[in-house]
Amino acid sequence: MFVLLFLCSMGTKAQDLGANYNENIDYPITEIEMLKQSKVSWVRGFVNIPNLFLQNENGKIVGVKENAIRTHIPTLKFIQAKKALGDRVKFILSLKIPFELYTDTVPKVGTKEMEYIFQATEILLKTYDMAKNIEILVMGNEPEWENALDTDLCHADGEDYRAFLNEFANRLTTWKQTNGWTFDIYAGALNRVSELPKSETVPAVVSVVNNNPNVVGLDLHVHALKINQAEDDFRIIRDKYGVRIGIRLFMKYSRNMIRMPLPDVLVWFLVGRGLFMMRILKCGNLEEFIFPVI
User: Which H, E and C letters describe the chain, residue by residue?
Assistant: First the structure.
């Protein structure tokens, strides 16, 4: 069952619905009629690149499972869902790359390990024309929790992760130009950043968003139980890390999740039932809204 996401944009754009499937990218095809009846405009899912498509030996990436990528049925079903829903529905694909679960460290740019990651991604984007069927591609998923457990007690190598994201964004841009792909590139997704004041990964991600012209924006998953927790994450991203992003906004939310893809920031956080008021903290003067929970 998909999670309905309510989208609301600044200005005159009508409200939209979206659906989030996380790792279950083969599910949308089983719910086409429901998606059509609910009039969703966005569908989002992610793939775990290392677990699905890379070979591992003793904490090192040693190869690419090319056949596994080219025959990955969930990828095929994801694209079938896109084609069944047509141009009215836009798809978001996030690439989950949990380094600490698969490698000893973040591989350095130029190493075979890093090249295997890029090779697997390029093959995935070409398989079943994935790249031609997505609107947004997100590099990473909660890396501050998945890169060598980047907490106050154990820090990941932020510089290596920054180098990885910059090289990844540049490779993606080259592939876009070569193949005529048009998806937007985001970095992220950051989660509960207010709980990790000493994180090395968070400023690395934000630095790439701010300084790499190939990256459209930041994916921010707040996962807040209370509005003030969401505000803390927004405040830190804006004031401490200085995310320099535009003002355009459109937001998605459901009975248990909010996801706001600003063409510059994607945001998630938990909500309760009923009506609630939320003040959005971002670079700029944004108004307060009241959203009914679906």
Answer: CCEEEEEEECCCCCCEEEEECCCCCCCHHHHHHHHHHHCEEEEEEEEEHHHHHEEEECCEEEEECHHHHHCCHHHHHHHHHHHHHCCCCEEEEEEECCHHHCCCCCCCCCCHHHHHHHHHHHHHHHHHHHHHHCCEEEECCCHHHHCCCCCCCCCCCHHHHHHHHHHHHHHHHHHHHHHCCCCEEEEEEEECHHHCCCCCHHHHHHHHHHHCCCCCEEEEECCCCCHHHHHHHHHHHHHHCCCCCCCCCEEEECCCCEEEECCCEEEEECCCCCEEEEECCCCCCCCEEEEECC
CA distances for 78 relative to 151, 161, 174, angstroms: 34, 29, 24
Neighbouring C-beta atoms of residue 67, cutoff 10 Å: 9
Report pLDDT digits (tens) over 268-277: 333 333 222 2
Task: Dump pLDDT digits (tens) for 175-186.
Answer: 999 999 999 999
Say if residues 103 and 156 touch (Cβ distance below 8 Å): no
Reported confidence tier of residue 224, pLDDT bands at 50, 70, 90: low
> What is the token pair recorded at 39?
């009039």
